[in-house]
Specification:
- By secondary structure, the chain is an alpha/beta fold.
- The protein has two domains: 242 residues; 284 residues, Carbon-nitrogen hydrolase (Nitrilase/N-carbamoyl-D-aminoacid amidohydrolase, 4-Layer Sandwich), CATH 3.60.110.10.
- Helices cover 45% and strands 15% of the residues.
- Strands 1, 2, 3, 4, 5, 6 and 13 form a seven-stranded mixed sheet that branches. It has a six-stranded mixed sheet with strand order 7-8-9-10-11-12, with helices on one face.
- Strand 7 and strand 8 form a beta hairpin.
- Helix 1 runs antiparallel to helix 3 and helix 5 runs antiparallel to helix 6.
- The longest helix is centred in the N-terminal third of the chain and has 28 residues.
- The chain is globular, with a radius of gyration of 25 Å.
- The relative contact order is 0.12.
Length: 539
């Protein structure tokens, strides 16, 4: 095979992988990996002439295209950060596929493909749990705008989708390969039956679940406020903060009424964190004005995002993220504030922070980099965090999961709120940093998957859009336009049912990780002993 053709195949795979994140149907993913699998097979068959690193280069090109086309918008916040994220993630993806390719060179064909699947699922799982988390391109996320296809995520989460994509691609490739060789139908009857089963069973199950799903009637009226403050030009003066407060209150009053249960504002509406020190929040004038807002409506309570801080007193041990000024240690948080009917406050501090913007990864070892962190204004720098998720509790006992921005793409993390009693998910975010790009649309679509996984209605308040109401099937009931002052009102149902995924979390990825360890140990052991496992397992 000519090198030019190999490069074209890499480019095609990268482009096809990108399409589901750009608004095209998710089913494209079922063929997106075929060119890469063809390259893998070529280098396996030609292993006497090519080293494994040859495949790595082609995989790197494919994944670089995927990462570049789908996440280039990070550059609006930081060109250096975008380059780092795109290059590193492409490298890690290619490394995992090279590892799977190495297993394919030594294991039997089916065992080699199993190794490829479990290695990649394990990598995706790692991307949710190490300190440079970036699970944006988890394969299962590619169905976020095709919720009728993946209602069964309430049993598997997005890793079920990743497993689906990988398995279907491999089966289609094996069938195509035998068709090209003009093998008789009986030689690949098993592949045809397997493909039909793996395609049709999830789809029929999903459509049945979608059209037969019925929400219990437990309605709450919610008002979402979208103040539309440009994060690149906003000011952080006292006057500017007061102006934002009055704008928020004015917009809320346009839709709030006697039946309103919750008024929700976006992430970091207020960013003068020294003023919002956690021990004296309820004494602030801005707090009193927010409380006065909800007191004008008999049922209303309020959730809003802000930057807060905590000052460590004498004898208190500062956290590793604490800052210091004039001998005083303090932490800065990206927080959600809840004010109940009695005027009492509850706070939640964002737990999953964005590497390079809100935290230095592996702070214990890389703390010297904290002065190089990307400055986006407002709540940036090395932030403090809350160790465990906690719900807001309304006056009537309704519990709310307060997800702040990036946290909403972490399915298993969101299940912790639900297991603790959350009947709703409220997402507050500020996607204005990414401007009018696919970034904010992708972020919105992922919220639909959280609704399916947990069967919780989602209210999403975004500073510049898109704010939306999402039901328990993942349907967007109503949404705002991008980059406009807006306020919308809707009714969502609370739910107390616990899904299988909520109970078990990312069990598929954990099983894959366990199998990965076994296969890696086997591969390493046999290599050290100089034995090719293919001679033992057979072709």
């Amino acid at each position: 095979m000519k090198r030019s053709l190999r490069i074209v195949l890499s480019l095609v795979s990268g482009i096809l992988l990108s399409l589901a994140w750009l608004g095209f149907p998710g089913w494209i993913l079922f063929v997106a990996l075929l060119p890469l699998l063809f390259l893998d097979d070529f280098f396996v068959n030609e292993k006497e002439n090519y080293r494994g690193v040859s495949f790595f280069g082609h995989a790197l090109l494919a994944f670089f295209i995927w990462n570049l086309v789908t996440t280039w918008w990070i550059m609006h916040a930081s060109p250096a950060g975008a380059a780092t994220a795109i290059i590193l993630n492409s490298f890690f993806m290619a490394l995992i596929w090279w590892l799977g390719h190495t297993a394919r060179r030594r294991f039997s064909k089916n065992l080699g493909y199993l190794a490829l699947i479990v290695f990649y699922l394990s990598f995706e799982f790692l991307h949710y749990h190490w300190d440079i988390e970036w699970p944006w391109l988890t394969l299962g996320n590619g169905f976020a705008n095709n919720v009728k296809m993946v209602q069964w995520y309430e049993y598997t989460g997005v890793f079920g989708g990743s497993l689906w994509v990988l398995t279907v691609n491999i089966l289609i490739y094996k069938i195509l390969k035998k068709l090209v060789k003009k093998e008789s139908f009986r030689h690949f009857l098993i592949e045809w039956i397997s493909l039909a089963f793996i395609m049709l069973l999830p789809l029929s199950l999903s459509f049945g679940m979608y059209f037969n799903y019925s929400e219990e009637k437990n309605p709450k009226e919610i008002v979402l406020v979208q103040p539309n403050v440009n994060p690149y030009s906003e000011s952080y003066t006292v006057a500017a903060e007061k102006k934002k407060l009055q704008k928020f209150i004015g917009l809320a009053r346009k839709e709030a009424g006697n039946n309103t249960d919750f008024i929700v504002g976006p992430e970091t509406v207020f960013e003068r964190y020294p003023e919002w020190e956690v021990s004296r929040i309820e004494y602030l004038q801005a707090y009193r004005e927010l409380n006065n807002l909800i007191q004008g409506y008999p049922e209303a309570e309020l959730m809003i995002g802000l930057s807060s801080s905590k000052i460590y007193g004498p004898g208190e041990k500062p956290s590793e993220t604490a800052r210091s000024m004039n001998g005083t240690s303090y932490d800065v948080y990206n927080s959600a504030l809840f004010i109940n009917r009695a005027g009492e406050s509850q706070l939640y501090h964002k737990s999953i922070l964005v590497s390079g913007v809100e935290k230095v990864p592996y702070m214990k070892y890389l703390g010297f980099l904290k002065n190089l962190i990307i400055d986006l204004g407002g709540t940036s720098g090395n932030l403090g965090r809350q160790d465990e998720p906690t719900n807001f509790i309304a006056s009537d006992g309704t519990e709310i999961a307060p997800a702040i921005c990036y946290e909403s793409i972490f399915g298993e993390y969101m299940t912790e709120f639900v297991r603790n009693g959350a009947g709703f998910i409220f997402i507050i975010t500020n996607d204005g940093w990414w401007k009018d790009t696919p970034g904010y649309r992708q972020h919105l679509s992922f919220a639909r998957l959280r609704a399916i996984e947990t069967r919780r209605s989602v209210a999403r308040a975004a500073n510049t859009g898109i704010s939306a109401f999402i039901n328990q099937r993942g349907d967007i009931l109503r949404q705002t336009d991008w980059w406009e002052d807006a306020v919308i009102k809707g009714t969502l149902n609370a739910n107390n049912r616990i899904t299988f995924y909520t109970q078990q979390g990312d069990y598929l990825a954990r099983i894959a990780s366990f199998l990965s360890v076994l296969l890696l140990l086997w591969l390493l052991t046999e290599k050290l002993r100089g034995i090719n496992p293919k001679t033992k397992a057979g072709k």
